[in-house]
Amino acid sequence: MTTSTMDVELAVPEAYWTRTRKTGAVMIGLGLLATIVFGALAGSENARFALGENVSGAGFDIPGTAGAIIFGLVALVAGVALLVTGKHFGVLTGVALAGFIISAVCWQMSVSTVSHTMPLGFIAAATFTAAIPLIFGSLGGVLCERSGVVNVAIEGQLLTGAFFGALFGTITGSFWLGLLAAAVGGALISAILAVFAIRYLVDQVVVGIVLNVFAGGLTAFFYEQVMRPDTDGYNFPGKVPSWPIPVLSEIPIIGPALFNGNIFSYGSLIAVAVITIALFRTRWGLRTRAVGEHPAAADTVGIRVLGLRYANVLLAGLVAGFGGAYFSMLSTTGFSKYMTAGAGFIALAAMIFGRWHPVGAFFASLFFGFFGALTGFLTSIGSPIPSQFLGMLPYLATIFAVAGLVGRVRAPAADGKPYVKG
Fold first, then answer.
1. Of 45, 274, 293, 294, which is the most exposed, with the fewest CB atoms less than 10 Å away?
2. 294 or 421: which carries more pLDDT confidence?
3. What is the CA radius of gyration of the chain?
4. Which residues span the membrane (predicted)?
5. Closest Cα to residue 349, out of 131, 27, 134?
6. 20/12 Cα distance (integer angstroms)
């Protein structure tokens, strides 16, 4: 074994240990904060966790002060274990974060003047709903970047999809045609990205940022000129209907989230399954991954590298644009300027957090969606935490996840690298 090989083998564990030790120290800090501060601030009331979608019905109680302290200690112990052993990074980090969050929730509910109950079914449903556009956006990112094209334009694809969905859904009077138009709107942004990134070899990150600004300005202009003067004629697509599945929708906690949905919720689950199978079980998926890892080698065996990249970037736009209709056809009943509010960038983070895998991106989206749901819940119970800070929670979770939890991940080798044949 050569000296250079030994250096490489030693460098990876050392880097991993450094990251693990730092994360463990952070978790110890969070555990101490929860144990001491949350425990001291918690009230005498019990924090009740109801299993359904409302505050009544079956559930269980946790004493506010004791719960804040006990779960803070859980976070503290998990952080110490991570720091000392350097093993089981994902499990111990998850336990520490869960302990910290439950401690904070116990504190907040015990001092609430509105309600001391958290309906877990409602939180689960709100988490999944908040994650829907992130799921579609991150899947669009996976399709692009697995093909070797960086997709920073997810925000623009979502926003254009929301605009097209509202406009054409209103004009045609059909939410189905509105959804189709939303997908086309996202594909239009992707088409511009593909031409500049693949044909003209422009820096892909720069193109993505420019397209986000372009989509924001263009949709804002047409909103002011067309939609705002005549809302009923151009900006009232209506809400997509819900289709609960009998029996399954009554399952505690997960029933309201997974089985009392709509075209977006069911569609997101189908999209994750289909794209996962297609990427890892089909010839198209093998070729896509080959193009994203080593396009020159793929070219030598007859794969049309540029053609496949064009097709996949357009497909990514269709997926993200469809998800963008969530904002104007489910979250609200109309389009407003810049209504995606950075969801595309959170979706980009979910893709990275999920390690460029559709299933990983799905769970990462749920992670970020949970903090959105938690923000809404804490606001509704009159949390003493300033609303401005609560509104920051999803974005803070994004920064924390990407900077502190992702660690050593590798994007597809050819991601962001233009390919010139020959």
1. 274
2. 294
3. 23
4. 24-42, 62-84, 91-110, 122-142, 149-169, 175-198, 205-223, 263-280, 310-329, 335-354, 361-383, 389-407
5. 134
6. 12
169's CB contacts (< 8 A; 6+ apart) are: 175, 177, 178, 179, 181, 237, 238, 325, 328, 329
Q: pLDDT band at 77, cuts 50/70/90?
A: very high
Structure tokens at 176: 């189905």
Average pLDDT for residues 64-77, to the nearest whole number? 95
Report CA-CA distances (Å) from 72 to 23, 65, 67, 110, 285: 16, 11, 8, 15, 44
Task: Please say whether the beta carbons of 103 and 68 come within 8 A.
Answer: yes
Chain-wide mean pLDDT for the chain?
Answer: 90
* Of 405, 333, 421, 366, nearest in space to 27 by CA: 405
Phi, psi of 260 (to 5 degrees): -125, 55
Evaluate whether 15 touches 408 at the Cβ level (below 8 Å).
yes
| pLDDT, tens only, 224-281 | 999 999 999 999 998 898 899 988 888 888 888 899 999 999 999 999 999 999 999 9
Beta strand spans in 259-377 (E):
260-262
The answer to whether the beta carbons of residues 191 and 411 sit under 8 Å apart is no
Structure tokens at 5: 């090989």
Is 32 buried (19+), middle (13-18) or exposed (0-12) by CB count in 10 A? Answer: middle
Helices 175-194 and 305-326, axial angle in degrees (round to 10): 140
Taking the alpha carbons at both ends of the chain, their separation in whole angstroms is 37
Residue 21 amino acid letter = R
DSSP 127-169: HHHHHHHHHHHHHHHHHHHTTT----THHHHHHHHHHHHHHHH
Q: Do 237 and 329 form a contact (C-beta atoms < 8 A)?
A: yes
Q: Both tokens of residue 309? A: 């990249």
Q: Is the dihedral of CA 347, 352, 357, 361 positive or negative?
A: negative
Whole-number pLDDT of residue 88: 84
DSSP β-ladder status, 46-50 and 117-119: parallel
